[in-house]
Amino acid sequence: MEKKYNYDDFMSIIRQLRGENGCPWDRVQTHESLRNCLIEEAYEVIEAINNKDTENLCEELGDILLQVALHTAIAEEQKEFGMEDVISGISRKMIRRHPHVFGGENGAAGMDKIDSDTVIRNWDDIKKEEKNQKKASEGLLSVPKALPANIRAEKVQKKAAKAGFDFDSYDQAFQKVYEALKDLNLSKENGDVSTIEEDFGSLLFSVVNLSRFLELNAENSLTNATNKFINRFVGIERLAELKSKSLSEMSNVEPDALWGRVK
Predict the structure, then answer these.
(1) Type and span of the H or E element at 219
(2) Distances in Å between the alpha carbon of 248 and those of 226, 231, 251?
(3) What domain range includes position 127?
């Protein structure tokens, strides 16, 4: 039977890796050098979730925990904060932002009168109070710029909508997409290079906004569309192989015909 390790064992391993006689790679890592590692590990967790692979999910969550531990170990060495501070901070936050569970204005007694949407609104209100945000624009500016563009756009739009700045209906949001598409086409026809990228960005932003009115997640929708394209491309490539041809050897119309067969 494999040995079981606990939290203290794990942190001891991390500190040994970072120690004087530890691993050359681990010892030289910094907050900055580990940034991409954290992003990659987070996406691998998402991949495991999407694949419903619980065994891999367990492993990938361990990799995320490793990143948290490494950043914390670096901070400990610089006498900035430790794992106890990290855990205490998130524990206090969860208690503070769930007054309906842990007590507060309504307390646990109000749990039967609160729904998920109300919880989210309360969470946002408490967060604004914590960060002393007085204006709606401060909420928009607080959305991390490092987020994937689709996710950042959606979060900004939701905050703007909560402040009262939003379309009244799906039809208005759809019309904005149409207007953005016309603007882009006009810039392209005029050869106006300076505005083509701006208009293209506006089109993408408008499409993300439309997804809110469809109650869809733009990031997930684009991911699904990309996966569908890949699967169909694999399909037409296999059909081409049956004809002993590569796609590059086919005429302009042949790949389209194969695409229609796998669609």
Answers:
(1) helix 218-242
(2) 21, 18, 8
(3) 97-132
Q: Over 90: is that where the pLDDT of 103 sits?
A: no
Q: Give the number of domains in the chain.
A: 3
Summarised one tens digit per residue, pLDDT across range 25-40 is 999 999 999 999 999 9
Q: Are 72 and 86 in contact (CB under 8 A)?
A: yes
Are 36 and 68 part of one and the same domain? yes
Here the CATH number for the domain that contains residue 23 is 1.10.287.1080
**pLDDT, tens digit (0-9, with 9 covering 90-100), for 48-59:** 999 999 999 999
For residue 53, tell me if it sits in a domain.
Answer: yes
**What gap in Å lies between CA 91 and CA 93, rounded to an integer?**
5
How far apart are the C-alpha atoms of 10 and 199, rounded to whole Å?
50
Residues 115-123: contacts with CB within 8 Å, 24+ apart? Answer: 122/97, 123/97
Give the torsion through C-alpha atoms of 96, 60, 72, 19, to 10 deg: 160
Whether 20 and 73 share a structural domain: yes
> Is a pLDDT exceeding 80 seen at residue 227?
yes
Domain match, 12 and 84 both: yes
- The predicted structure's pLDDT at residue 104: 63
In a domain, 207, yes or no: no
Q: How many whole angstroms from its chain centre is CA 61?
A: 16
Q: How far is CA 40 from CA 28, 37, 185, in A?
A: 19, 5, 36
pLDDT at 89: 96
Cα 49 from Cα 45, distance rounded (Å): 6
Rg (CA), the chain: 25
Which regions of 139-229 does DSSP assign to beta strands (E)? Answer: none
Position 138 in a domain: no
Q: What angle, rounded to 10 degrees, do the helices at 193-213 and 218-242 form?
A: 110
**Co-location of 226 and 253 in the same domain:** yes
